[in-house]
Amino acid sequence: MSTRRRIAVYYNVGWGGGRRWLYECMSRLSAYHDLDLFSVDRAPDVPHYPDVTEFAEHAYAVPFADLPQRTGVLKPLKGAQMWADLLRFDRASKAVAERIDDGNYDLMFASVGGYTEAPLPLRHAKTQSAYYCHEPMRMLYEPVVPRPYGNGLARKLWHRSFYGTVVKRWDREGTRNAGLVLTNSRYCRDYTFRSYGVDSIVNYPGVDTDSFVPGDDAKEPFVITVGEQLATKGFDWSIRAIGAIPKAKRPRLVWVGNRTQGPEEQYLRAVATECGVTLDMRERTPDPELKRLLRTASVFLYTPHLEPFGLAPVEAMASGTPVVAVREAGPVETVVDGETGFLCERDPAELGEALARILGDTALRDRMGAAAREHVVANFTWDRSVAQLASLLGEETPTSL
């Protein structure tokens, strides 16, 4: 039976779906349990949005700054600096764990680490713990997504020596030390077992269906995609899919994210030029504007590589916008092929054809958008997600689950 407990919540997430997950969980979880928040804050001078501290009894943050980046003749010292930062971050995480232990909490609930995916306090804390694994540390277990930059031998050797040794071991230790592991999809559950040898319970994230809603705004002839500008997000595939649509009917592609990322931005703009695609990049878009874009877009396009869940397409569906996505990992569990959108192989021509079908058929677009909204309301609300989460965290012995 679930009981009200004192829970120390550890987090280290910035912008994006992870931050939204944290906010929505904490805002509702505080009705079930008494929460204190802990973090090692790597950006103490940057306002955190949305702010989760209002839902806690107390909030404790340990400020942490990476050492200044070495440039010029000192650039060869960058590797030593990263090792130093990792060790310093682990010491700060240990201090947080000790403070949690001293607080006599019933449970530590942790998500997203920093240098590791599994939060480092999980390695040190003696308090009973639960870990929400949004994804295993994928760079350790998946092939590198090819790019025309950053592929030198020195970089590969550095990756192997830094991430493939201590970071990998600490990430594994943190995951295996948790008494209860939760994952955000069946795909992530299976991936976590393969990577760490631990069983987990699926707790699907949700969407605020009172906030992400269809509106009276007319649909506009553009396609939207959302996410961090990383190679694993596969935005080049989205651009090529748009480029596969005949020029006369080719829509504009709007990308929304936290910030553009140097070489990746240059690469994506080059792909857009090559494919004849109008690419509209929008950084740090205010929340009301993001919601407007999601409900007025004709289609949401989603082409990441093996994304374990993917919150953005679910938010788009809640907004009454159909989704075209790659048929792999998380989207297979959220998008109903042929009803709320289309699932396609990772092929620009197939993705482009699916987009063109929706763009060229207003009745199909509206029918899929309505079905998408109904699907999310029935299966992916935050109230439903957090009620399950609160029950799991309220169990006296999570390891027995």
Which bin fits the share of residues in helices? 40-55%
What is the general shape?
globular
The assigned CATH architecture of the largest domain is: 3-Layer(aba) Sandwich
Stretches with pLDDT under 50, minimum 5 residues: 397-401
Structural class: alpha/beta
Number of helices: 13
Give Rg in angstroms: 21 Å
Verbal overview:
- The structure is a single chain.
- The chain is α/β, with parallel strands linked by helices and 401 residues long.
- It has two domains: 6-203, 3-Layer(aba) Sandwich (Rossmann fold), CATH 3.40.50.11720; 220-379, Glycogen Phosphorylase B (Rossmann fold, 3-Layer(aba) Sandwich).
- It is built from 13 helices and 13 strands.
- The protein has helices at residues 17-29, 78-102, 121-124, 153-177, 186-196, 235-243, 262-275, 287-296, 311-318, 331-334, 348-359, 362-379, 382-393; strands at 6-11, 34-41, 58-63, 107-111, 129-133, 180-183, 201-202, 220-226, 252-257, 279-283, 297-302, 323-326, 341-344.
- The strands form two sheets. The chain has a seven-stranded parallel β-sheet, sandwiched between helices.
- α1 (17-29) packs across α13 (382-393), α6 (235-243) runs parallel beside α7 and α9 (311-318) crosses α12.
- The longest helix is centred in the first third of the chain and has 25 residues, at 78-102.
- It is globular, with a radius of gyration of 21 Å.
- Mean pLDDT is 91; it is low at 397-401.
